[in-house]
Amino acid sequence: MKVTLTATAIICILLPAILYAGEGSMTAAEIVRQANHMALYQGEDTKGSVKMEIKDSQGRIRRRAFNILRKNADTKDRNQLYFTYFLAPADVRKMVFMVHKHAALDVDDDRWLYMPSLDLVKRIAAGDKRTSFVGSDFLYEDISGRSPEEDRHELTGTTDRFYEIKSVPKNPGSVEFEYSISYVDKQTFMPMKMAYYKRGNLCARVIEVMKLENIEAREDNRKVVYPTAILTVARNLETGSQTTMAFSGIRYNAGFGADLFTERYLRRPPRDVMR
């Protein structure tokens, strides 16, 4: 499955839509809840390898490679644990980014960054979650996800393929955008594109899923299939840069223990993370 746009300007134009007039019985909140589950919470845990390519406005390219593990900390699509171990290039090799995500709005996520060059573990402040993730066009918050409870959601339109959801932050001072528009696939409920707008309806940033793949796994002793984004692009329309993340070796329900996602493993990650 692929969504392709041929020009930057088109990215910022809303898809042709028929304004919502009671189609079915799903509300905006229900669609967002389903989309949030598909993007972030499928399976009890996930492991995968990522190759990241960062291209600036002049066409210069930097590359990153890392492994990422995710474990649900409950069964309600709320709290989660993330562990990201960097493999390349040399200046970030063995760097670790770890997140304990808390869905409650009055509790900040716990985030750590281990920098091997300094042998330093740094806590990332809550205000830093919307800064660049290792110099890419993805933000720290993009990696672990934004809680649906942080925004007000409205179903503004539909097409044959997508639900169009407008999300307005409840706390505008905490983010750099005024609202976002998400395009949620009607069949899979995967959010295929998210566009972020600043004042004056200026589209400043777009994240787009370019390819989905059905990943087979076992769940409760039965075979299941998880639609998974394996190629994603983030574009900064203000700077002209873009970042591509390509996922491989994805496994669900591997049975990682919660003790893996603790500070003791930041300096000495287990083999499951490094290979």
Structural notes for this entry:
This protein has four helices and 13 strands. The protein is mainly beta and 275 residues long. The chain has a single domain, classed as Lipoprotein localisation LolA/LolB/LppX (outer membrane lipoprotein receptor (LolB), chain A, Clam), CATH 2.50.20.10. Strands 6-5-4-3-2-1-13-12-11-10-9-8-7 form a 13-stranded antiparallel β-sheet, covered by helices on one side. Strand 3 and strand 4 form a beta hairpin. 31% of the residues are buried.
In total, how many domains does the architecture comprise? 1
* Low-confidence runs: 1-23
Query: What order do the strands of the largest sheet run in, or round the barrel if closed?
Result: 6-5-4-3-2-1-13-12-11-10-9-8-7
Q: How many individual helices? A: 4
Descriptive tags:
disordered N terminus, 13-stranded antiparallel sheet, 275 residues, outer membrane lipoprotein receptor (LolB), chain A, 9% helix, mainly beta
Structural topology:
Layout: H1 8-11, H2 28-40, E1 45-55, E2 61-72, E3 80-88, E4 96-101, E5 110-115, E6 120-123, H3 140-144, E7 151-158, E8 162-169, E9 179-185, E10 191-198, E11 202-219, E12 222-236, E13 241-252, H4 271-274
Antiparallel strand pairs: 1-2, 1-13, 2-3, 3-4, 4-5, 5-6, 7-8, 8-9, 9-10, 10-11, 11-12, 12-13
